[in-house]
Amino acid sequence: MTQLPETTDKKLGLVIDLDTCVGCHACVTACKGWNTENYGEPLSDIDAYGSNPVGTFLNRVHAYEVEPLDGGCSQTVHFPKSCLHCDDAPCVTVCPTGASYKRQEDGIVLVEEEACIGCGLCAWSCPYGARELDQASGVMKKCTLCVDRIYNENLLEEDRVPACVRTCPAGARHFGDLSDPTSNVSKLVVERGGFDLMPEQGTKPTNKYLPPRPKDQLSDADVLSPLLKPVAEEPKGFLGWLDKALEAL
Amino acid sequence: MAGADRMLDTSPKVSDEVRKTTCYMCACRCGINVHLKGGKVAYIEGNRDHPVNKGVLCAKGSSGIMQVNAPSRLRAPLKRTGPRGSGEFEEISWDEALELATSWLEPIRKTAPEKLAFFTGRDQSQSFTSFWAQNFGTPNYAAHGGFCSVNMATAGIYTMGGAFWEFGQPDWDRTKLFMIFGVAEDHDSNPIKMGLGKLKSRGGKVIGVNPIRSGYNAIADEWVGITPGTDGLFISALIHLLLRAGKIDLSYLANFTNAPCLINETKGSPEEGLLLRDNDGKTLVMDRQTGSLKPFDEPGVKPDLAASVEIDGVTHRTVFQHLAERFLSEEFSPEAVSEKCGVKPGRIRAIAAELARVAFEEAFELDQSWVDFRGQRHEKMIGRPVSFHAMRGISAHSNGFQTCRALHVLQILLGTVEVPGGFRFKPPYPKPVEAHPTPHCHSQPDCPLDGPHLGFVRSPADLALKDDGTPARIDKAFTWENPLSAHGLMHMVVSNAHAGDPYKIDTLFLYMANMAWNSSMNTRGVMDMLTDKDESGDYVIPRIIYSDAYSSEMVAYADLILPDATYLERHDCISLLDRPICEAEAAADAIRWPVIEPDRDVRGFQSVLIDLGSRLGLPGFVDDEGVPLYEDYADYMVNHQRRPGIGPLAGFRGDGTKSGRGEVNPDQLKKYIENGSFFVEHVPDEAAFYKPWNNAYQEWAVGLGFYDKPQPYLFQLYAEPLRRFQLAAEGHGERQPPDHLRKQIIECLDPLPVWYPGLEETLVDQDAYPVHALTQRPMAMYHSWGSQNAWLRQIHGHNPLYVPTKIWMENGFEDGDWAKVTSIHGEITVPVARMSGLNENTVWTWNAIGKRKGAWALDEDAPEATKGFLLNHLIHELLPPKGDGLRWANSDPVTGQAAWFDLRVRIEKVDPPQESQPAFSAQKSPVGTGPFEVRQKVRT
User: Fold this and answer.
1) Beta partners for B423?
2) Contact flag B62-A136 (C-beta cutoff 8 Å)
3) Which of B62, B194, B350, B692 has its CA 20 to 30 A from that of A70?
4) pLDDT at B1 over 50
5) Contact check, Cβ <8 Å, A28/B795
C-alpha cells in the first residue's frame, strides 16, 4: 500500500470548460503524441489497422446528449476525461507495490512503471475510469499532467504546460495551481462555478469542470417587440419612412 | 514511499532539432513544429508564431506522425497488370512511369489537347496545376470546388468580392454575436475553434443554424435545427423582419452598395433589369444634394436609396426599392416560412430582434480615421458586432447559390461586412468580379489554352461554348446548365467522359481525388464507368493516371500511379496567387519543405508535373531551346514569375526585404525556413476595415501586387451579371440558351436572392421519400486522407446513421438495429443510432469513414469496411429522368455545385445483415496491410 501525502505544496491540475469544448479531440492526440514519445513505455495500439483497434490513451473525449426531463431540446456536452489527480486518490492507496503515488510537491499522481506489475487494482479503484493498462507493455498508464513538460528546462517557459492545454484550439483547457486562490484556474472556478466530478465518491479531485452556460435562452419575442416594430404597415408607408430616414442621415 | 524519493527526470531532452513547416493533415494549413530525433519525426506541435493557428493544433495535426508512418503509403510508381479495379499492379521505375505518361500525353497535345482531362482534388497548388494545364492546352482542368463549396465562394464573389473561410473571417476580437449556417465541424478548423473560444471568453453569443446539433452547434448558445435546404427561406424571413422594422444600416447601404443604383423597368426591353450607366460604363446614382444623376464614385455624392427617375420615358428605380418590395412581401413572414423551415415564428422573430439589438444597440466606434474612395474623410470607424459564417450545409444544395447570396445580403443590410466587430476580408480579398478573369476554353493542337480555365462570367458571351453551341469543357462548366461554375464540375467528369457527352476523352489525369469512392456521387456507377469497356474490348475511358500518397480506393482504378510524398517530405507553396492563409489584418503565405526525406521511391506531385512539363516541352516549363526552366517545384516556387516581380511567394523577395513585388531572390526559401516557413505583412491600421472603399487599403493592396491599380467597388445586392443570363433566356441577344433551359435560367438566375426548393425534392414523391439525409465530417477526420491513421481511426472508426427521436420511435428502433435506407436512386443497409439534437425529419452520418475492403492498408474485416458506409450510393450525379431524354445534373443550376444535401430517403428497420450493404469485393492492396501492434516511439 502506498500512502498519500498529508498535504501537498501545490495542487496542480486542469480546469476544463464544458461550455467551450467543441469535442474536437485535439487534446486526445496531442497527449498521445507527447506521452508515447516521452514518460515511460510508449502508448501502444493493438490491432492498429484491424477489426478492433485498442490503443492506450491518457485522455479521451466523450460526447453526451442531455435531454431535459420536462421535454425541450437536448443539449450535447463534450466531456474530456483524464486523471483528476485526486487528493484522496484511491488508486494510490490500493497499489500493492507502491508504484502508484501522489507527489508531495505538486499533487500529481504518477505511476513508477518499473514498480508496476500491471495488476489493474488501481484502474478498478478509480471511479472515473482514468487509468488504462497498456496491453503491450503490461504497465498502467495515466495522465502525468505532463510532468516532463511543466518543469522541462529544455522547453520555453510558455510551453511548460501539459500538451493538451498547449494544443486546445478553443482554449477550453486551463492549467494551474488550484491551491492558490489567486491563480488563473482558481479564479475561473470561482467565476464560473467550477465543480468536482462525482464529489460523492470522496476522492477530492483536483481537476475542475466549468459547467455549460444555459442554452436556448432567446425566448419567442412578442410581435410588438420594440426592436421589430414595423416602421410602416404598408409598402408605400415604407417608402415614406425611407425618405424621412434618409433626410435624417 | 513519498514522491520526492522517486527517480524522475522532469527535464528530458525533447528533440535533437525542431523544423518548422506547414501542416497538411487538412486544408487549414497551420504552422507546425516538427521535432526530430535521430532524423526521425518524434513529435508535432503547433507553431506559436504562425498567423493561422498561433500554436494550437487539432487532432489531425497532432497525429501527423502516424500519417508519415502509415502502412497505406504507396512505395513506388505502379503500372496496372490486372483488370481495372482489381488492384493488381507492378512496381516500376520513375523513368518508366514518366516515359509512359509522356507517351500517352504527347500525342494528345499534338492533336487534340482537350482529350486530356486533368482534375485535382484537395489540391493546394491550383495556381501551379492550372498553369500546367493551361500550357498543355486542354480546356479540361479544375479542382474539387464544384463538389465542395463553389456556391459559397461564387455567391460571395458576385455579391461582395469574397466569401467565408479563405476569403474572410469574423472580427474575433470584437464581435459579440456570431451566427453560423450549415457549418459542419470542418472549414475552417482551428481558426473557428480559436475564435469561438475568444468569443465565449468575452461572454459573446453563438447562434448555430444546422439540422444537426454537434460540434460547434453543440456549444452554440442558441441552436436552430432547421430543415435542410430551407436556410434561404429562413434568412429571407430575417431580412423581412429587419427591413420592416427599419433595422438596416441605410448610410452603409447608400454609400457602399449598389442599393442606390437604378434599374431599368421597361418591360420586354433588352435593357430591362440592367443598371443605369454613364458613357464610361459607370453605374449612376441619384445625388440627394443636387437631385442629379452622378457616377457612383464621384466625390461628394450622396446616393439616394429612394430615387425614381424617368429618362427618355424609361422609368428607373433603385435596387433598394426592388429589394424591399421582394422581401417585405408576406411570403417571407415568419408565419409563411415556419412550417417549411421547421422553425417556430416566434423563434425567427427572437433571432431577428437579437441581430437588430446587437448590430444597432451595441454599435461602437474605433478611434481611427480613414478616407473613402470618394475622398471623404471619416474620423471614426463604426463597429457593428454581428458576424456570420457559413459553409457546405447551405452551399451543397441546388438552391445553395441563392441561399449564400441571401446570407450575404443579410449581413450587408445590417452593415456588418468590413466593419469592426463584423465580417472582415482577408487579403488579397476583397476582389470584385471585375478583378477576376473570365473563363477560357479555346484549345488548339500543340498550343497553350487562350487563358486561365476558371473565372467569373459577366454575361452569356463568357460561356465556355464551342462555335456550334456545344460545351467546350468535359464537365460542361460555364454552360447554360450552370453558367457561373467558377470551380468547374469535377463530379461530372467521369460520368460525362463515360457517356462521351459532350465528347470523348483519351486520358483522365487525377490528383488527390478519391473519385472511385467518397468523392463521387453514385459511387457504384462511377466504378462501373471507370471499368466499362466498349464493343472492341477497350476501356471506354481509355487511360487513367492518378497521383496519391496513399492506397486509396481510386488507386485500383488507374492504369498508372504516380506516388506522391507526404506533406513532411516535399516542397509546397501556399500562395497568394492561390488559396492563401491570410488574416484580416495581414497578408500571409507559407511553404512546406522536406523536413524529412522520403524513405521510399515517391516524389512530390508538383515536382513530377514539372518533370512531365519539361518532357512534353510545354511553354512555361522549357525555354525556347527546349531546356527545362525548373529543376523541381522548389525551383519553380522561387524562380517563376507570373507577372514581372510577382511570383508564387510574396515574402523575402529581391534582396530579402521586399514584400509582394520584387525580383527573384535565390535565397527566398532559406528565408522562409528561418522565419518558420511563413511570411506575414500587416495591414496598416487605417486600412484595416472598409477595405473595398478604403483608399489606404487599396493603395496597400496595389503595393503588394494584388492588383495593379486601386479598384474600389460597390457591394452587389443586385447581381447584374445574373440578369444578363435571364435576358438571354427571355430571348434577347445573340447567344441563346436551348429552349428547355429557359425557364430554369429565368427562375434560378434571379439578380436578387430568391428561394426555390431543391431540385431533387421537386422531382421525387415526398411521401415516398419523406426524410432528408446528410453527411458531415468529424473534426478529427476533416478530409478523408487521414482516416486510416492508427490513432484517428480509434476516435471515429464507426459511422452509424444517426436517426432523430421521432423516426426512431416510429420505427421501433433499438440499440444495435440496422435500417434499410432508400432513395430514388438506390438503397443501403446500415447500422443506426439515436440522436436527439437533430431535425426531426433528418438523418445523417459521418462522411468518408466507410472504406472499401482492401483499401488504405486496413484489414478486410476492419469496421470501416464491414459496418462503415457511404451515403454516396444514394445520390446520383444526375437528377431522376424527367422523360425528356435529357441528362439533368444534380447540381445547382447557377454554379453546378454538387447538390449532395438535396437527398431525400425513406428508412425502415431490417434484420441485421452480415455487413453494411452494398458490400463490394476486396481490392488487392498494392501495399499489403498494416502491422498488428504499433508502439510509436523514436528509438535512436
Assistant:
1) B170, B417
2) no
3) B350
4) no
5) yes
**B103's grid cell:** 507517351
pLDDT at A221 over 70: no
Cα radius of gyration rounded to whole Å, chain A: 25
Angle at B872 between CA A76 and CA B220, to 5 degrees: 20
CB atoms within 10 A of CB B201: 15
- Can you give the pLDDT at residue A224? 53
Predicted confidence band of residue B787 (pLDDT cuts 50, 70, 90)? low
Residues from chain B contacting residue A11 (CB–CB below 8 Å): none
Q: Rounded CA gap, B407 and B347, in Å? A: 18
How far is C-alpha B815 from the chain's CA centre? 36
What ipTM does the predicted assembly reach?
0.97
User: What percent of chain B stands above pLDDT 70?
Assistant: 99
d(CA B81, CA B126): 32
- The whole-angstrom distance between B322's CA and the closest CA on chain A is 11
| Amino acid B505: pLDDT | 98
Phi and psi dihedrals of B776, rounded to 5? -150, 165
Residue B188 pLDDT: 81
Is there a contact between B879 and B824 (Cβ–Cβ < 8 Å)? Answer: no
User: Is the minimum CB–CB distance between A7 and chain B shorter than 8 Å?
Assistant: no
| Residue recorded with cell 456536452 | A77
Residue B4 has pLDDT above 60, yes or no: no
CA distance B544 to B541: 7
Cβ atoms of B531 and B568 within 8 Å: the answer is no
pLDDT digit string, tens, across residues B794-845: 999 899 999 999 999 999 999 999 999 999 999 999 999 999 999 999 999 9
With cell 452554440, the residue in question is B220
- Buried (b) or exposed (e) across B129-145, using 16+ Cβ within 10 A? bbbbbbbbbbbbbbbbb
Chain A positions touching B305 (Cβ under 8 A) are 242, 246
Hey, what's the cell of B233?
427561406
Q: In what order do the strands lie in the sheet with B308-311?
A: B262-264, B314-318, B308-311
Instruction: Return phi, psi of residue B932, to 5°.
Output: -70, -45
pLDDT in tens, B550-572: 999 999 999 999 999 999 999 99
Q: Output the pLDDT for position B2.
A: 47
For the segment B655-659, the average pLDDT, to the nearest whole number, is 97
Q: Could you tell me whether strands B386-390 and B177-181 are parallel, antiparallel, or unpaired per DSSP bridges?
A: parallel
Q: Kind of pairing, strands B78-80 and B89-91?
A: antiparallel
> Quick check: A88 and A204 in contact, CB under 8 A?
yes
Ranges assigned E (strand) in B601-701: 678-682
CA distance B450 to B437: 12
Q: How far is CA B874 from the centre of its chain?
A: 23
C-alpha B786/C-alpha A78 separation (Å) is: 23
Cβ contact B57–A26 (<8 Å): yes
Amino acid (one-letter) located at B541: I
- Spell out which residues of chain A touch residue B344, defining contact as CB-CB under 8 Å: 220
Q: What pLDDT, on the 0 to 100 scale, is given for residue A71?
A: 77
Model confidence band, residue A186 (pLDDT cutoffs 50, 70, 90): very high
d(CA B411, CA B828): 40
Q: Tell me if chain B has a CB within 8 Å of the CB of A73.
A: yes
Q: B533: distance to nearest CA of chain A, Å?
A: 35
Q: How many helices (H) and strands (E) does chain B have?
A: 25, 35
- Mutating which of A49, A56, A109, A139 best tests the B interface, going by the most B Cβ atoms within 10 A? A49
All residues of chain A having their beta carbon less than 8 Å from the beta carbon of residue B14 are 152, 154-155
Q: Which three cell numbers stand for residue B466?
A: 464551342
In the predicted model, what is the mean pLDDT of chain B?
Answer: 96
Helix (H) or strand (E) holding B408: helix B400-413
Give the residues across from A66 on adjacent strands: A75
